[in-house]
Amino acid sequence: MRIAAIGLGSNVGDRLGALRRALSLLKGKDAEILKKSDVFETPPVGLTEQPKFLNACVLIKTSMGPQLLLAQLKEIEAAIGRQDRGRWGPREIDLDILYIDDLVIRDGELEIPHPRMHERAFVLVPLSQISPQWRHPILGKTVEELTKEVSLSGIIRIITL
Description:
Elements (H helix, E strand, L loop, with lengths): L1 E9 L4 H13 L3 E6 L1 E5 L10 E10 L3 H15 L13 E7 L4 E2 L4 E2 L8 H10 L12 H5 L8 E5 L1
Antiparallel strand pairs: 1-4, 1-5, 2-4, 3-4, 3-8, 6-7
């Protein structure tokens, strides 16, 4: 069994409903949810002229390998109705593998740990609630340490997921 951290985000439609539906669908995909972060409202990154996001993270236990987990997350996104609006565009749901144990994978389609997670407060703040001591296998820093290195401007705790 593997432990994986999944980042969830939504800024189109029923944002909180999309996060909750994603969790519900994830449970049916060989994923036991171990921990859930709070939900945070966060400003968009990259393409800033769009609605604010709701973001959260979950820790799961699964027997799925990285490629299968990625495929399952893409299926969940499709089931929720994610539309392709380009890189960093608005989205009904976004599900990202942040890490799986201490694996390092760089194969073009899949990068684990997530290649920009250490730069993103919208990932690190919720992840620090559920996995503060996980150590980034490339950077050698814990989530707690990485969180102290990013700006927390504009991030507001909304509700428990």
